[in-house]
Amino acid sequence: MNLVGLNYKGEQVTRFMLYSNSRESRCKKTEEDRLNTGTPEHSSYGEGQIFDLKGESVWEDVTVLGSIVSAVISRWTDSVLKMSYSEASWTGMFNLKTFEWDVGGCKLPGVEDFNDNEFRIRDNVKFNFAGRWPEIQNAKIYRGVGDGGCANVGSLCLDAKRVAVTIGTSAAVRVVSEDVGYFSKGLWCYRIDARRKLVGGALTDGGSAVEWWENMYGEKLSEEVVGEAMGKDDCGVIAVPFLEGERSVRWRDNANCTIYGMNRSTTKVDVLRAIFDSISFGICRILDEMVKCDIVKRDDAVLVCSGGALEKNGLWRRLICDVSGFNLCDFGEGSATSRGVAILIKEDYEGRKYVPSPEQLEKDTVLTPNWTRHQLLREKMLKQGRLIEAVAEIW
């Protein structure tokens, strides 16, 4: 989520607002609000910052809520450009049904809603710098799209049969759908465009939790250390990895990190394994929510892994496969987000939906769950769940 207030000239008049906001959301959403906007109240969305901003004098100058992308394009051209549906829905303030701003059921006085919001900008937009660079005068201009949606498209996860699991700095589980029914409070639902939605959940701490371990112990991850950690299914250490609060599935801003079960014999490798487990368990809780809501069918879907932290770590992919009970394959081509942008542009250029060939969907290596290990890991996941609820009393 990124958000900025622009005036009628397309000039920036507010600070940039980012999802890393630490202030608790002051927008209390009803169940109807949540289903309309696709998100619960949480500090990672824009409502709290907008409520703060409305008390400042600069708000009087805001006519368009933009993104970093629309702010830059507005400076490059002679038009004030609005956000895409995709960017707007990432703020948690966009009504998925009416295509209007929706902040806890409140209108935003003075701010324009959406009219033309196609992915490609089709207005008579002219570049301000065409005299300097005449070759760009007839270039096509595209609005921004959320990186999660692009990663799904780029890894060919275009329906509920292919579930994208990404671990980079953060972690996420996502499914593309044109017909999303009910989704529980543990999940979010964003738009990719006017036709497609993206439903799933995200963890603030993914690879960043492993980086925290590296900084804490002054050691870089190596294949040897990862191999040793993954062999410790019964190390007895359980981690609650909320270094920067919790998003899916409980959405608690004030959640903190807890490591339980340490004693004199506990090693740094035990702690590393607990971190790998905890993120894998978070991913599985999102998957479990998606199965309960009938968004994904366990026996009819494969997990498709991408993101730097997973692409380099085959043992972590095996752990996720075993604990989730889903078949899993590795996307294996890298740069899924960039590839997704290229596919979206290809769809616009050709005027038709992109359909991957069977050869593109075939993968040489598909992991299947080890069901004995699955049972052991699920018991460990239940213990972590009880620990999370116990320490929540302290939060």
From TrEMBL:
Gene3D superfamilies: 3.30.420.40. Keywords: Kinase, Transferase. Residues 164-344 form the Carbohydrate kinase FGGY C-terminal domain. The keyword Acetylation does not apply. GO terms for biological process: carbohydrate metabolic process. InterPro entries: ATPase_NBD (IPR043129), FGGY_C (IPR018485), FGGY_Carb_Kinase (IPR050406). It comes from the Eukaryota. Signal peptide: none annotated. GO terms for molecular function: kinase activity. Pfam families: FGGY_C. The keyword Transferase applies. PANTHER family: GLUCONOKINASE (PTHR43095:SF2), SUGAR KINASE (PTHR43095). This is Carbohydrate kinase FGGY C-terminal domain-containing protein. It comes from Triparma verrucosa.
